[in-house]
Amino acid sequence: MTVTLTKINQSALTAVATPSTIPFGSTSALTITGGNGTGAVTFSAGTSTGCSITGSTLSVTDASGTCNVSATRAADNNYNGATSAEIAVTLTTADQATLTVVATPSTVSYGNTSALTTTGGNGTGAVTYSAGTSTGCSVTGSTLSVTDASGTCNVSATRAADNNYNAATSAEIAVTLATTNQATLTVVATPSTVSYGNTSALTTTGGNGTGAVTYSAGTSTGCSVTGSTLSVTDASGTCNVSATRAADNNYNAATSAEIAVSLVKIDQAALTVVATPSTVAYGSTSALTTTGGSGTGSVTYSAGTSTGCSVTGSTLSVTDASGTCNVSATRAADNNYNAATSAEIAVTLTTTDQAALTVVATPSTVPYGSTSALSITGGNGTGAVTYSAGTSTGCSVTGSTLSVTDASGTCSVSATRAADNNYNAATSAEIAVTLTTTDQAALTIVATPSTVSYGNTSALTTTGGNGTGAVTYSAGTSTGCSVTGSTLSVTDASGTCNVSATRAADNNYNAVTSAEIAVILTTTDQAALTVVATPSTVPYGSTSALTTTGGNGTGAVTYSAGTSTGCSITGSTLSVTDASGTCNVSATRAADNNYNAATSAEIAVILATTNQATLTVVATPSTVSYGNTSALTTTGGNGTGAVTYSAGTSTGCSITGSTLSVTDASGTCNISATRA
Asked: What's the confidence (pLDDT) of residue 423?
């Protein structure tokens, strides 16, 4: 039969959201409890305004909206479809990401601004900025302005909450506040040209702020500044002035460019010249001074066109008492005052007596044959000077020259200067001139010859000198020569020889001694030297005694075999070294203080050979069997001659070199050796 089958309703279906409270930006997983069957489950947000569902994931779209969710399990073969009741899901706003405030630029000078922006944060909330408790800046909108560059400036930003995000405030950032440069500062000097003794008022234009203004003359050499007043200290110096406005909270210090202030000199007070005394005798002076004037300029004096006076420094001298004398003074300009010249004053000039006149004889002691130049000291004027020897018996005067006529006489001289327009005539007191004998001309000793060998002599003479005094000669401290009369003899050629001559004084000339001259002393050659060998024929192994004849002096005698090939010498003994060689011998007597070294001619010494010691031949063995040999050697003999062996007339042996062989054992064998 047919049985009708029908589906049944599912058990109650419930939607579950985990979590059930969801902040914006997060999700909730949707599941179900209850229901039956295998039908697919779907979820729906229905008319919700704040969330949406994808699959089984619920997302917040607007945390200020509503969110109601239901689940539906579809029908399957056994169960009808079923939909749950809606559940309310709570939506909440989320915290924003970290909000950071940015100031561009982050260092702001007074008078400028910085643009404020943010990074980070979330949502659409309006951003506002705050300077908080800052004392040096303020914020309008997103613009930061410096109100006091010496204050603080800490800025934060706040993004307001919106439907999905909570409000967020950034951490404060410190904005660096800097002072700014002032506008150009200009210094003004009124007036800009200042004469010495006056001042100029200093002011400024430009600059900014409340900083105090100071003024400086810098390295100026001609002005100084006190406060805002410029004073001239040296009108020839420089004057360059600058102004500085000090920094304040908002402006840096500013210094103006220097301005040049022109400095000018001023005229001196009236200058007057004074002459003390005002009446001056010829030969006297007047001291010139001034009164009045100003400054430190040097004072000079001038006699202008005067014909009777001159000025040196501040002293007025009379040059012609009949002339005129009008003097003025000028104080030179200095750094602050212009030059000033006084009016001329008239000085009265008078004539005067000469100063005491003194005659001078140079020299005052005059040797015979010489003269003395006469001059004067003292006196005055241009009058001619004449000289007189008065009643003198030993001198005469020609012009200004005194000559000795008799060194044993008297000599007294005076001078007279004639009068001229300014001075009276004046005559000196007489002076006594001393008359003396004179020195001879230089005396020179001559030795002929000037080089003297031992055993010879030199004749001594002189040149120069004066008068009739006798000439004597001396060898002084010489160690190698002696003088007898005018003859020099060599006593030791190795010594010194220095000779001088003396010409004695006479009535008119003093004694004179020549400078020493050095006489060269030389050694002389010895007599011929001959070497003698005793004996003159010497066999090998013997000696010959060497002696000499001839020669001179005390020099040591040495002997030499020269290039001899057969003999040698030790001291005075000749030995034969090779009787086949040559032997030529010479002797040398060394030089001494007086004799040169001398070497003899060589003599030939005959060298002879000598007999050797007895030579003995030895045969080893001395008994030799046929077919064997015997070695031959020798003992005795002398020298290096080759040894040869001989069997003579032997009939039983023969010799080859130093080997003996038996040729016939029945024969004879007699052997000899010979050393060449």
From this structure: 81
